[in-house]
Structure formats: C-alpha cells, structure tokens
Amino acid sequence: MNARLHALSEDQIHGEKSMLKKFQDYLGEFVYGGIDGSVTTFAVVAGAAGAGLESSIVIILGFANLIADGFAMSVGSFLSTKSEKQKYEKHKAIEYWEVDNLPEKEREEIREIFEDKGFSGDLLEQVVDTITADKDRWVDVMMKEELEMTEEAKSPLAMGGVTFLSFALFGLVPLLTYVIDYLNPLNKDLFFISSVLTGLCFITIGFLKSAITNTSRIRGILETLVLGGAAATLSYFVGDFLENLLS
Do 218 and 29 touch, CB atoms closer than 8 A? Predict the structure, then answer.
C-alpha cells in the first residue's frame, strides 16, 4: 500500500514538474505578447484622449486595435514557430540522406568535431564508433554540433494562442475604464484612471520580463514603464495636435 502511494506521489510530482516546464516554455511569449498588447492599446487610448474623443469612440478604436493587432501578432508567432520547425526537419532529412549515401564523409565530420573538442587516439575512435553505430544518434549529433540546430519543441498553434491570449488580456486593461464608463457613467477623469491601471499592468509585465531574462526586477519594471509611457505620451500629443488642427 505504501509503495503504491509512493508511486502515485512520484507520478504526481512528475506531472506537476511537467506542467511547470510547459508553463515556463510559453512564459516568454506570454510576456512579450502582453507588452505589445498593453503598450499599443494604451497608445490608442492616449491618442483618443488627446483628441478629446468620447468613450464610445475610444472603445471602438481600442477594440479594433486589440483584435486586429492581436490576431496579426499571433499569426506571426504561429508562422515563425512553424517555419523554425520546418527548417529543422528539412536539414534533418538532408543529414539522414548524407548518412545513408555519404557515410565515410559524415563519419569523418564526426571525427573532426570531437577532435576539436580534445579527443584523440583510441578514445576518439571509440567516440566516433559509438555515435555512428546508431543512425538517429548520429544525425542528432550532426544537427547539434555541425549545424548548431535544436528541434523546436513548442507547438506553433500553442505559441499563436498564447500570444493572442496575452495580447488581449493585457491590452484590455487600458480600455476597462472606458467600457465601465460607457455602461455606467463614472464622472471621473477616465484617462487618469486608465493610466494608473495600465501603469500597474506595465509593472506586472516588467516584473515577469525580468524573471524571463534573469535581469534586475527594478530595471525590467522601469524599462516597461518608460516604453509604455513614451508611446502613450507621443500618441496623446499627436491626438491633441490633430484635434486642434482639424477642428
């Protein structure tokens, strides 16, 4: 009974580690999708605020940007990941062909690779014999050592989905105040409230970004705040300038 519980516990731990690994694999895409979503949508909101547009117009422009840009970014992520996988498979097929049709040449390349790593004499020959004894292992070594390519394990569909989800989730934050005001007038400074909420969003994204890049938390937060703030400031004054010019 104890052995069974122990086995179940180990399976549970393994499953949790696997889930954590998958989350970490896609966290980078989630963070960068969130950065683009929040920055671009807040820039639209700032430009509309600078032009003195009503909440309904801000909502229309904001959601149009949210859906269109989010979809475009997710498609880009999907195609980029798919392209990397196809590129890897293409070169892998070439390596298999060379191993089948040019074995001596490929064997010599293995010897040169490990000779450069410091192997020599009988030990070098043992390494070459061991690697070339298995075709799959042989090709795998050639892919990593000669072509410096590793297989993309992430799903293109999942990459696109995570990007869109993150873009939409964080990009929605700057619009929340205007949506609430449209449904139930707040009689408040909507742009100020939206700026505060978006600032908190930038802080969260900056913190996550620093975790991905293993850099300073403060630096990650400040970089995201400065980037978002600069885009919003530029958009606000452009909107204000055009509103004065055209009115």
Answer: no
